[in-house]
Amino acid sequence: MADAMPITEAQLLGMFLESVFLGFFLITFVQCIAILLRDTSRSGWRSLRSINWPMLVVAILLFVFATLDVALSVVHNIQAFVFYSGEDGPTGDFSQISDWINIMRTVTVVFQTTIGDGMLIYRCWIVYERAWLVIAFPLTLWLTGMALDIWIIYVEETLRIRTLIVAAKLSPLITAFWVLTITLNITATSLIVLRLWKVDRESSLYTYRSGSETGSSVLTRARPRSNLRRAMIIIIEAGAMYTAVAVIACGTYIGGSNAAYFTSDVEVQIVGIAFNLIIIRASQKIDFDRTTSSLVPLSVIRAPVNLNARGRDTETPTIQIKVEENIERYADSTDRIKYAHDDDSLHGTANLSPSDFGCAPSN
């Protein structure tokens, strides 16, 4: 059955949409680079030691592949509509699957996606204190995807026939690639959110407020919206945006539609946008230097408070301890967000780093 969308229309629409999303990407890229290189606390540039190099390198690579894909799209359309004079006109040129431009555009799509997925696994690995067992499944999917990337490029280069990217020989391979990407993203994002949720829940057990703050004489537990909860929202939103586009792209390949051309074009830009937004929103909403503290009667932690008619505690001592949540930043790569309690029996460390969210530490 002939596709309702001609390849020429799909290519032009893909060039237009990808150019629009490249504009969005460039806006987020500039902000992301500024965050990674500027030290806002000192109104100057970060030292070489304090720059988060993994994040910076990945941001630049995503920019290079995103820009290259748009450039290749422009060149390909000019070549097909202006310079090509062979059989079937522009359609004939676009159908040369083994042409170097088609191969290079496939390279940009698969490697842009692979870099984005790898960065997601890296964040998951750091959040879980470099526990390899936790990322074993996502890492296996990622390595399988890399092998599939190479196989897709090889098959496309050796076909040497006039066909489209949704051809029978290529479509199953590319569909498998998208399925791996979608599964990896859902798995890794869920693991990161689960970790943040657990740490937030455990730290909330030591967050209290005095009833005197609300005009009452009863001590109650407070549940303010923590920075970790904000981080969870950031991760979920970025992951949902990326996964949604990947699902749409996968669906177009399964359906054998030429719409696969422009959905994959948009996906190239979305990978970089999602990566940049995590860094931008984390730097805006997560204050890693926040320190909160409150005085809480020891009885609140070990036993209920019993008040007499005069509002005094008659059953428990009035000794107070300071329960303090300290979020400290260090200049080296061993940054940790810690919550510590002065009472020796109440202490713990949540080994999370500002760099887990893409924010480079400052000196």
Description:
With 363 residues, the chain is mainly alpha-helical. Helices cover 59% and strands 8% of the residues. It is built from 9 helices and 8 strands. The protein has helices at 7-37, 53-83, 89-94, 100-127, 136-159, 171-204, 227-254, 260-285, 298-302; strands at residues 38-39, 44-45, 208-209, 220-221, 291-297, 320-326, 337-339, 348-352. The strands form 4 sheets. A two-stranded antiparallel sheet has the order 1-2. A two-stranded antiparallel ribbon has the order 3-4. Strands 5-6 form a two-stranded antiparallel ribbon. β1 and β2 form a beta hairpin. α2 runs antiparallel to α8 (260-285), α4 (100-127) packs parallel to α6 and α7 (227-254) packs antiparallel against α8. The chain is globular and about 70 Å long.
Total strands: the figure is 8
Helix content: 55-70%
Strand order of the largest sheet: 1-2
Helix count equals 9
**How does the overall form come out from the CA principal axes?**
globular
Rg over C-alpha atoms, rounded to the nearest angstrom: 26 Å
In terms of DSSP E residues, the strand content is 5-15%
Based on secondary structure, the structural category is mainly alpha
Question: What composes the largest sheet?
Answer: 2 strands, antiparallel
Mean of all residue-level pLDDT scores: 77
N-to-C CA distance: 63 Å
Q: How do the SSEs run, as a string of H and E? A: HEEHHHHHEEHHEHEEE
**Stretches where pLDDT falls below 50 for ≥5 residues?**
208-222, 286-307, 315-351
Which helices and strands, and how do they pair?
Layout: H1 7-37, E1 38-39, E2 44-45, H2 53-83, H3 89-94, H4 100-127, H5 136-159, H6 171-204, E3 208-209, E4 220-221, H7 227-254, H8 260-285, E5 291-297, H9 298-302, E6 320-326, E7 337-339, E8 348-352
Antiparallel strand pairs: 1-2, 3-4, 5-6, 7-8
